[in-house]
Amino acid sequence: MIQTKGYATHDPSATFSPFEFERRDVGPNDILIDIEYAGICHSDIHLAKDEWHDLMPAMYPMVPGHEIVGRVTQVGDAVTKFSVGDVAGIGCFIDSCRECVACGFGVEQYCMNGMAMTYNGTEMDRTTPTYGGYSKHYVIDENYALKVTADGDLSGVAPLLCAGITTYSPLKKFGVGPGQRVGVVGLGGLGHMAVKIAKAMGAEVTVFSTSPGKAEDAGKLGADNFVVTSDPENLAPLANSFNLIIDTVSANHDLNPYINMVGLNGVLVVVGMPELPATIHQASLIMGNKSIAGSLIGGIAETQEMLDFCAEHGVVADVEVISPDRIEEAYDRTIKADVRYRFVIDMGRA
Ligand code: NAP
Ligand code: ZN
Ligand code: ZN
Q1: Between the N and C ends of the chain, which has fewer C-beta atoms within 10 Å?
Q2: Minimal CA–CA distance to 88: which of 165, 163, 143, 26?
Q3: φ, ψ (nearest 5 deg) of residue 140
Q4: For a substitution probing ligand 1, which of 190, 206, 207 has the most ligand atoms within 8 Å of its CB?
Q5: Domain membership flag for residue 252
Q6: In this structure, which ligand is nearest to the CA of 167?
Q7: Which residue's alpha carbon is nearest to atom 11 within ligand 1?
Q8: 292 in the Ramachandran plot: left (φ > 0), alpha (ψ -120 to 50) or beta?
Q9: Are 61 and 9 in contact (CB under 8 A)?
Q10: 279, 294, 309 — which closes off a domain?
Q11: Which tens digits make up the pLDDT trace of 151-193?
Q12: Residue 6, domain member (yes or no)
């Protein structure tokens, strides 16, 4: 077994302290990654605080982190995709059944037998607990690791492994491109990636935000328009005018104003997962043949496609790099929507 160190919370207080644990030895198909950066996704916060208790109960001790980049330091005998020294990434899951229809279609995140989550889950043996990227090392089957071709500063690449793929996947699925109007609700980790990726796909992008102070940043990120949502008068002129609106908001809020702004045959894609369910006015979907859709991260092949797309278009996350002793402060600021635009932990400082 390989001894390693992470940062764990032992209860929903989400108070982190150093945590020594073991990774498995490198098997024939495995790679060992020395983790350099781990992004802080709002899902880490929901899980650490056990806010998704009914859906995914928290398992403590919990080492969160599913936006991972690092350097490959060991490869198993049968490994073909990676060599020692390569940069590799890990996203939200580290294995799946490989047999079901979903796995067959390459959408392993919807594995019908349940994917193995990067943390707060178990390996496919259903007993060995998984610990995430707020740690020094990870051992993973090469088929579930991603190749990162970007080099240099990798801190902005880590968030692509969740925030990037979660926004890329539905934007691609619904055919976002030139001539299309895209709305992005919530300018946080996912939201700012949605802006960059939708712009790289050629769309006109409008940000919907509760934070007037983010207007200038939205422009710098590439957004064409910025709308403060607290005043309904700002939204009225935009009725029926978007091809797609992607809602990345982490807190409970009303979806109906956004359905109203989706245009004929358009779609509201929800990726934010607040604690409580939302209420939808059926009429606002019916009048205009509108759809509402959900989307969960992306499969391994599509995550690789997204990384290659981002490398080609020079898209990385805007990050604030922190040392591991500042995780709680980063959680507090993320909850207050004071994140510009992703906290990333420098695991080299662990
Ligand atoms: P984040 O960085 O905290 O961003 C969320 C943004 O939502 C905030 O920056 C803020 O933007 C807005 N917001 C916060 N509180 C609000 C409120 N009370 N009313 C309206 N807007 C509010 O979070 P994230 O990491 O991007 O994650 C966002 C959500 O997506 C979380 O629920 C997370 O669990 C979920 N998620 C889902 C998937 C998936 O596969 N579907 C993957 C990853 C994450 P403004 O300041 O601009 O208003
Ligand atoms: Zn995430
Ligand atoms: Zn499966």
Answers
A1: N
A2: 143
A3: -145, 145
A4: 190
A5: yes
A6: 1
A7: 186
A8: beta
A9: yes
A10: 294
A11: 789 999 999 999 999 999 999 999 999 999 999 999 999 999 9
A12: yes
